[in-house]
Each structure stands twice: as C-alpha cells, then as structure tokens.
Amino acid sequence: MTELLKVLEDYDPVRMSNGQIRCMCPFRENHPDGSGRKSFFLSPELGVFHCFSCNAKGSAVRLLTRRFGVNYFDAMEMVNLASVVGDKPKKPEFELDKSFTVTPPKYFLDRGYKDETLRHFRFGETDDGWMIIPFYRGRELVGFQQRKQTPDRIVRNNTGFNKKEYLYNYDDGYDYVVVVEGYSDVLRLYEHGYNATAVLGADVSRWQAQKISEFEHVYLAFDNDDAGRRATEIAYWQVSPHTDVKLIPYPTKDPGECVDKRTWAESFRDATDYAEYATYMAMYWDGYIEMREKVKRDLKHRAEDDSR
Ligand SMILES: [Zn+2]
After folding, report:
1. What does the pLDDT look like over 247-294, one tens digit per residue?
2. Cβ distance 1 to 43 under 8 Å?
C-alpha cells in the first residue's frame, strides 16, 4: 500500500476507508483549467481507476506501467498487495496439495498443441497420472483443474476456486481481447498470436463482464452451439454499453479446434458487429429470438438481485 501511495505521491493521494485511493488526476493534460484536484479514484481491489472529471479510466496495472514506469510484475504486486490490506489478513485461497511437474501432457500434444505452448501455460502431470492445468492470476497460482482421459474422461475442479471472479490468461497489456469459453481455446489462439481470455464455462459474471469491458475492443468467440450462443448474448448485453464488441464467425466447433492459423486470421478479419450477427442468427438459428429475450430478462433479474 505504501508503495502505491509513494508512486502517486506527487498527486496528494489519500487512502479512503473503503480501500480506494483518491487523489489529483495524474492526467494533468486533461485539466488545463486546473480542475480534477480530487476527482481521481483508484480501486486496488478491482484493479481499475477512474477520473470523474475528465472521465479517464482503465486498468490500474496499465496506469502504473505506462504512466508511472513501474514494471509489470511490480505493478501487479502493488495492486494485489494493496487489495489485501485490511483488518483481516487474507488467507491464500488455495494451496496446491500435489507436487506436479511441468511436462506437456501427451493428451494435449496429440490434439496438436505445441510443446512450448503447454510449457508457457505450465501444464503438467502428477506422479499418479493426473494432468494438471494450473490457473494463475498474474504470477500467483490460484487454482487448478486435474483431469484424466482414460478409461473415461474425468475432470475435477479445485474446490474453493471462484470461477466468477476469474478470467483465464487475463492480460490487460493489450487494447483488445478475444473472449472464449475454455483454456484450450486460449492456448490455440495464443499459438495463432492473439490475446485471448477464457471465462471457463458458458456464462459471464458481472465481475468478468466488467474486466472485459476495460478493453477498447472486445471480440466474442464462444462455442458454436446452444450454450455458446447463449453465452454470446450474456456477454454482449453486459459489455456492449461500455466498449466496442464484435463477433468472430469461425467455422469450427470451438476456437480450440480451429487449428489452421490462416482460417482463424480470416475469421478474425471478418468479425462482424452485433446487428449483422443477430440478423443472421434470427434467420438461421432456431429459437434465437426467444433465447435472446430470455437472456435479457435474466440479466435484468441478476442486476436487481445485486442491487438489493
Ligand atoms: Zn482527470
């Protein structure tokens, strides 16, 4: 916390009781009249900042790295450390109780993922034959999934890991993001050279929508099935009020199966806006309109539940 206050010291920072930092807006060029002396808020907990005077807003980590020259990992640490300062020391959510070795599992190699990709995402195996897919937040291991393929596919998720407040491979060092369902999709798009993040399922929480909304350009690429179509609407209606959203019409079941780089690149280039997508869906996807209206009603109820 002190470090964060130190970085901002030229701007008279004050830590408020809710953990947010209030100070003079560091974007002085937006305030030639000298305004914005107390209009700037940074929330370490949410990792975002907002100036209520000039409306500058975005990721706290990016502010620290780009504006204040703090290196990325230090910035991550400042925001994370700051968020745990409070009355109760926060226990680690999770401890990995198994020792695992970062070894690209054969199952993923067989599906065409590169050795270096699997190492980058630190996929591994335990001595007793489980594949381990670790979930990191920055450099911190916050959870993992273990799976076995034989004889039947078994997947076990680490308990106590809140998927609703997590995005796999979230990296705000880009001005755009491709949003997908699963980590296999993220890995494939990483191989194709794209910044992707996974919601880990076919739903998008308000927390996830808020983080995704911080990007200037958002591309949705959920699975080409009923659940994926529904997730597309859930994401679109939450994110589109805040930023530019486009949809990627790729030809495979999910982005993970889009092994051909050129096919993906063409799909990305052909990204459509929502009006075009919805018109097409209304013509060719049975029950699309009904599903969409139901999603909009459900989201309204969610918002009401949250405000109670
Ligand atoms: Zn400002």
Report:
1. 999 999 999 999 999 999 999 999 999 999 999 999 998 899 999 999
2. no
- DSSP per residue, 242-275: TSEEEE---SSSSGGG---HHHHHHHHHT-B-HH
User: Which residues form the domain of 120?
Assistant: 100-161
Residue 298 in domain = yes
- Separation of 38 CA from ligand 1 center, angstroms? 9
CA distance 20 to 3: 14
Please report whether residue 92 resides in a domain: no
Distance 235 CA to ligand 1 centre (A): 29
Q: Are strands 217-220 and 176-180 parallel, antiparallel or unpaired?
A: parallel
What is the tens place of the pLDDT at every residue in 82-115?
A: 554 433 334 444 445 556 677 899 889 999 999 9
Ion ligand 1: residue ranges with CB closer than 5 A? 25, 27, 30, 36, 51, 53-54
Query: How many angstroms does the Cα of residue 212 sit away from the middle of ligand 1?
Result: 22
Q: How far is the CA of 24 from the centre of ligand 1 (A)?
A: 8
ipTM of model over 0.85:
yes
